[in-house]
Amino acid sequence: MEDNTLPWSLDKVESLISSLYEPRQPNAITEAQALLANFQSSPQAWILAHELLRRPDEKGKFFGALTIIVKLNRESSSLSEENAQELLEHLIGWYRDSFENYTGPLVPRKLSSALATFFLHFHQLWPSFVRHLSICLASWQYFDPLSLQSSLDVGRVLDTLDLNKLKAVLWVVTSIVEDVIRIDWNTANGVHLYNSVVREVTDAATLLFKGLAETQMAAVSNDSIKCLQSWIFFAQKASSRDSHVLALLRNLMPSVIESLISESRFGASAELLIDTLSNYPALLSEHHFNLLVNLFVSSWADERYSRLLEGDIEFESAQFGQLLLAFGEEKCQWLMQSEDPRSKVLLSMLCGLLGSDGYPVAENRVFVPAIEFWSTFTEVMSDLVTFDDISTIPWAESALLQVLEVVSVACRKITYPPAEEFSQWDSSDRVGFSDARKDVIDLLQSAYSLSGFQLVATFSNLVLTALNDCAWSQLETAAFCLAGLADCSKDDVRLDEALGSVFESSLFSHLSSPNTDITLRTRQTCLYLIEQYTEYFERNVSSLAPALRLLFSLLGNSSMAAPASRSILRLCSSCRHHLHAETNGFLDEYQTLAEQQRLDCISSERVLAAIASIAQAIPDAPRRYNACTRLIEFIQNDSARARELAQLPLGTKLPCFGQRCIENSADDSPGLHIALKTLRCLVGIGRGLQTPVESTIDLDASNPSEAEYDDQLERLHRQVVRIIMDIEDTFGRNSEVNELVCAVLRCGFSESEPGPFVLRFQDVTSYLTRHVGNIPRPGIFVSTACSFVSSLYAQGNPNKGTVYTTLLLWVIRLLQQSSDPEHDPELSQNSIDFACRLLSKSPTTLLTLQPTTAAEYFFLFTIQVLDGSEPLPKAAAAEFWATFITLKGGHPEASDAAEQAMGTLGPLLARSLARNIGGRASRSELDRLSEPIKRLVNCYPLAKEWLQSGLGHTSFPSSKVTEEQKALFVKKVVSLRGSRATNQVVRDFWLSARGSSFAYAS
């Protein structure tokens, strides 16, 4: 790399520039770019850039203009006013010459950017830049901008410019406005820049009016539209006091609307109007909207609209659709309520967009935005009227008919193409089509609030019609739409007649028959339909048995097993109180399927969970436990099989049915595969046996006593514990096994009544605390302990104090075995979370822990984590200390001990907090770290002294904060007494410690 103080020759620079455009190795190009960047940092770059811009070579001129931009951005403060004025004269001269000897836009565009950059840094030297540049280009000579006559008629000057020079002025004005928009206007320089641009708006409007009226050269008109768009962005950001800016721009909009009918100007005009309608509709007056409406109902629009509907894939056709939709979004309420015949025409056009040729997304790009518009339309209408009011409001009936027509058109468009065609689409089109179907469901759900159960009846009839016609693709679409309405109508008994016509039809027999040619997707969607209407089957039990027979008959079909088992689980869980008498029959059916190896792993898990949910509803405890025993026996058999398979050599073929099981990778033995399935099934059973959330709770019932754990239930507990311990003993080095074991334990934590998975607290404690030493992901077990202590507290277990102490000592032992707090972030986070939960439930457990060295270790550990960089453990540590600090006064039994501990820990905590807000923490951590600071100053009078000491400690990481700033920070924090405003004070101090440009004492 050459030093930038060495002399650079023009020839050398030109040679490097030329080398960038020659076929060379990437490293050679990178080296040339680095040398040129080095050149741009040299003092000689100013002079040589001038020379490059005088040369005929376009590449050299482009690089010369680029160098001027770089130098202005880096070194503008070193230029005197005289040098700056001279540079402006040269830039305008070069810019004029680039159009006179025009060979392409590359150099002129870069020079227009250079002039804009000059304005950013020296706007005070270039007042009235629109008229100054115009007169310089018109007269072929340079004038001093500071002595230009203000009475000069800019319109007359613009009239003397030929079209190329008019384009030149437009480019510079556009570049200046675009650059000024990016500047922060709240700074002193930003205010001056803003005012300088505002003063130009009248001249700019004159320039734009002339450019928009140009018909001979479309490029000039399009450049005018682009320039106007930059001014509109400026007006959006401008102060409301400068309303004349908006007024002048508003006067230009009719010209833009009129230019839509020009083929060569349509694209630019449509883009500007779409953006304005979407983001800044306040710019448009009723006159403008009226012009647009007239245009949309003209023969010109008819021709554009027809091309779009016929599947014209040109960008401008899609743009026309977007323009129509943008107008519709803005004038939605007018379209809905107006009696103007033009509104009906526009609504019809907007509806017709949904029916344009091609499958949505893959071939039709206007369908999704059209659906979004109609969803908005329907939601707005729902806000204005209710279902019961529609018949009394004149416009509402017409609007509802339009919505129903839209629903009909949209639903016809989401029928899947033939499978072979769909498989040839790329993945993004397939996903997009599926998302478009979901958008239609959103529309249906919005329409339901207006039309009521009429929609359900409509789609029920469509299902029946498709069944009768054996139109399987149409059946899939109708079933999909009907299923999508379930969330709106599942509890409405008025729908039972319509739904009954579907579920009591030949649908089930068609689906179960192996001889029909119903497509796989249609079968899957019909099962999904059954799954969505579980409430119907709860109310109509006679339909439940046929539905379940159908679902169980499909379990052996590898393509249907997943949706069938999912539907079985949903139905059995919802209808458990109607099915519990048939529990033994379900158990026998499962046994038969398992013995015949007709179930894959996922189906086994779901079906067992379904049977467990039925068993949970058995009112008689002995019968319920007998059913549970059979369920657990299935799991015991699988557990024994897994341990047997673990003894087989690697590479043994996996003895498991179906393709939906876990992949038998090189790291997975057959035994591990079955072990994971066993645990998942056990978790499924545990969750199925949980009391449903909606079940009634007997408030007068007492907590279960030890006597209620009869022999049968104790035997079930031993079996569950034996299963998880056997699997862990064999496969315990696998972290997924440990996760699933913990999931089994959690199944009983939320229960308030005895059950097979509500294990004795001694068993859970003993099981958790056996996990010490080198075990994979110990944080999983600590996380389970967090849930366990919460459940003990909720149940009011009289022995919970002993359990708390045992578990806390175990957690601390795990931390002591870890080499570093950041070695295992999961363990650190969950351990601190565990202690934090204990503080809120039993603060004395930590404060009176024996040996005391264990508690001391934990306190220092949390401070060490607070000093670390792992975000999740750090957040947990901040929450722990925020909770611990408030023990003073909040918990009488722990207040004195906490205050005594803080006498030692307070200064250490304050020192750690000081290091964090002194720049060590990340920005996203500041709010969490503010909490212990706020509580510290609110609870402890010595907090001020501790914080001052921490900020003055040698470990404070920043040298950018003065002692006065530190003292002011402490004063502010203490005076705020823990209020929310402390967060901003902490953020400001952190910024100053990081060295950001910030006046702290402001």
UniProtKB/TrEMBL annotation:
Question: Which UniProt keywords are given for this protein, alphabetically ordered?
Answer: Nucleus, Protein transport, Transport
Listed GO CC annotations:
cytoplasm; nucleus
The UniProt record lists the keyword Transport? yes
- Where is the protein localized? Nucleus
In the record, biological process GO terms are: protein import into nucleus
Q: What is its main location?
A: nucleus
Q: What is this protein called?
A: Importin 13
